[in-house]
Amino acid sequence: MSHPRSVLLVDDSKFARLLVKAFIQSRFPAWTIDEAVEAGEAQTMANTRPYDYFIIDFNMPGKNGLELGGDIRQQHPQSTVALLTANIQQDIQNQAEALGMDFIAKPPTQDKITAYFSAREQAHD
Amino acid sequence: MIDLSDLERDTITELINIGVGRAAASLSEMVDQRVELTVPSISFVQRFSDANLIAAPHEVVSAVTQSFNGPFKGDALLVFPERRSLELVRRLLQVDVPLDSLSDLEQEALMEVGNIILNACLGSISNVLGHPINCSMPVFRKCETRNLMPDYSPVDAPDAETTAPFLLILHVQFMLRENDIDGYVLFVMDLDSIQTLKQMVQRYLAHALS
Amino acid sequence: MRYGNQIPPEDGTRKKPTRANMPVDTGQVENTGASNPGAQPQPAANTPAPASVPEAGPDTGHPAAIAGTNPRSTACKPASWGAELYLTLLDASDVGVITIDQNRTIMFWNSWMEKASDHKANDVIGKTLGDVFGDAIPTRLHNAIRDCLSLGMPAMISPSLNKSVLPLRPLPQFAEKFPQMQQSIRIQPVRIAQSTQLCSITVRDVTLAVQRDQLLRRQAAELAELVTKTRRSEDRTRAILQNTIDAILVASEDGTLEPLNARAQELCGPQGDPEIKNIIRFLLPDSGNTPPPKPPSDRLLTDLGTGVIEILACPANGHNIPLEVAISHFTAYGRYHYIITLRDISQRKRHELEIQNTMQELENSNAELEQFAYAASHDLQEPLRMVSSYTQLLARRYKGKLDDTADEFIHYAVDGTRRMQRMIDDLLTLSRVGRHGKPFQAVPLAGLFDAIEANLKRADAAPAGNIMRAPDLPMVMGDPSQLLQLFQNLVSNGLKYSNPEHAEVRISAREFDSFWRISVSDNGIGIDPQYHASIFEIFKRLHGYGEYAGTGIGLALCKKIVERHGGNIHVESAPDEGSTFHVDLPKDHSVV
Q1: I want to staple C148 with a disulfide (CB 3.0 to 4.6 A). Which of A119, B78, C199, C232 is the partner?
Q2: Response regulatory domain spans which residues (chain A) (predicted)?
């Protein structure tokens, strides 16, 4: 594995952010993990510094996860963007895929999160 | 008195959110179109009839109720304004000739829809918490919104006690835009169950973050 | 026996859980399981083991599950055969009962299931549903069983959302229409020991209900179509009614009047005529026990009983409207109704009035003219007679005594006065046609023409010629002396305007429905069509005085006489081809 990565978690649920952060840190302790509660804040943070990963919830007040994900994909094409949502309707999954986003179904579990990042990192290497 | 920290409140909302997300996926598959969901809202009320989630308390609705009775107990309801429920059934059964009210078989179909949705919802919560939730068979009811749940009014407590909220109501609205169908899912839990749920959530958080 | 494992009887007949009874229910089941370790599921199927079934003691509450009453009040509770009783009851149940264990294999399969599926319990116990039915089992059922066993989720599978779940045979009476039994399925978690979740499946045959639902739906569709059709035709009828210009009302037996269209509403409404309903009620043949009072006479424009009813509506918001009232009737639902149609006849009334005025003016001016003609001719006669007498005296006394020129002048004066005398006489005759007519009587035309021929022969000035009459000239109604004048004029005209050497006048008659046409034809000089109308005008002459004698009043007189008889006169002619005058005389003079 190469150098430590940076991740921005965008979710209005503190609980969800807490879990995902914990799961990532237990497997990748060196990584930087930032949090944003909605799209606007996420945009500002993304403009301040580069992130390797964006993990975005779908159902949020304001811009939804697909809208934000689409913007991020355009503005930061180098970054990997994943939609992490309880809304697992096929339609949402298809839209995420069309925008070049990954899809992770909620609830987040240690296994799921580890598997996702490991696979991603391997693909990079 | 209900005393939930922001995180606990957030966690319960997220749990329901996950459940309803699954439910919406089931519904979406059944009607073959996208189901839009609102962000769940939590409110605490003293009586069910106090809940201001319902704009029109006298509106006649079709409701499918499943009671759950695991470590915590309460009711999960899938509610449609009556006209919307007719449209949903029509859409599901692809009937050309709608009747003015739900026939027995249509009622049963709607119960099954409720069953699938509420099971998806409750099942995913049970999955997250790692604890089975015992559920009842769905029950169908047509009534005015305000009568969806009986009012457990503390009969002999005329003093300050009566102002204490003791029901938690979780409300998620969903819409099928193509057919102009909307409805909502309600979770109603009493004080004891909320305490139990709170403990389970704490245990879960502690475990997950350890 | 049709169980593959020990099943505590209460599980299959668990009461429908409610908020109130659920905790108790679960508690009971779990306690039972805990106190009976022998009830752990065993993989071996088909082991009838009533002995190892937990005893259904009075304190366990099992009978309550079946009877739905307090266990302590249950009458039958012999401990030794309790469990077998429940199994027998389950087996004999009128619904299909299947129990599935954690391995997804069938533990119990009752007689109902055997019959409906054609699979004996012995053959299916220990197998999965998939083993038994193959791919026919839908995912929905698989998932429901999975969720039930792993999460304790109950499920229901409705016949409307799932066309056929288990391939079961329908009852013979439904076999034709339904290849498979229509099923309503309940899937419930059942726990017999603390850690053993079972899945109970009950199958109800709802083919009859589905059939009825389809019938209901079909009938509803037919009804809806009928309603649509009826509504459409009703809408059309209403639109026609509403857009009819006439006001239409309906009156029922008791005299209640209902306006049917917009115009009627208008007339009967607040801006309409407050009296109109009373007037209509008065006009109805039988208007209840108390006939309304007769409306004021200025509201009834016609005498009742003439067939045409006209009334005057006086709306609050405008001009009075004359209305023609038509009343018809129909019978509906055994009751007699009148339909009243009110037609606005303002325009017609206006025209009628105009015609009436014109007629009156015409009559007045005719009378004046007649009076003038009479007065003029009568009063002119006196001075004329004087002039005539003295010029004749001059002629007699001084003829040949003055010079030739004087004689010539005197001759012109005498001739002029004579002509003027004749004209005045003719004028008087003409004016008398209207004023001094005799009553009509039957006049035989044959006799009339005899007299005419005699008159012409006697008169010196009569033109020569041949008069030919058709045989069988009819009898006509009229004033004999006027008719004589009429036809004598025509005959003499005919002769006058012909070559005296071979002049011929023919008289014929032709019968029509309502009149006789008497025709007088000559072979004379004829009349240019452009004069066919004007020749009947008074003092109209087509020729100079020298050519043909006469005052030019003859045909005007003829026309006047014919008109007094209610008839017509016209001419057919062309120059040099002779002329035919047709006189049409009505047979019936009642209207004159």
Answers
A1: C199
A2: 6-121
